[in-house]
Amino acid sequence: MSEIEGIPKIVKPDLEYCDKMLERLEYKVGLITRDLGLSSGIHTKSTSGFIIGAALAIVLVGIPIIIKILL
Q: Any stretches that span the bilayer, and where are they (predicted)?
């Protein structure tokens, strides 16, 4: 296509650059998804760990008190 003053020249898109950028974006999205999954798993485990720990603390404190009352 010949250049005419004032009219932009048509350029073919650089598909190779677009593919590379898409691969980097998919990689970053994968990392973010993995990080969110790990953090939600840790949050769930910490909540259940807190509940189990509190129950065990009550039981361990309660055993000597119950023994003292019975004896």
A: 50-70
Tokens 């055993």: give the residue.
63
Tens place of pLDDT for every residue, the chain, 71 residues? 555 676 767 777 778 988 999 999 999 998 888 888 877 777 777 778 888 888 988 888 888 888 888 87
Whether 62 is in a domain gets the answer yes
Cα 43 from Cα 49, distance rounded (Å): 10
Domain membership of residue 38 (yes or no) is yes
What domain count does the chain have? 1
Residue 66 lies in a domain: yes
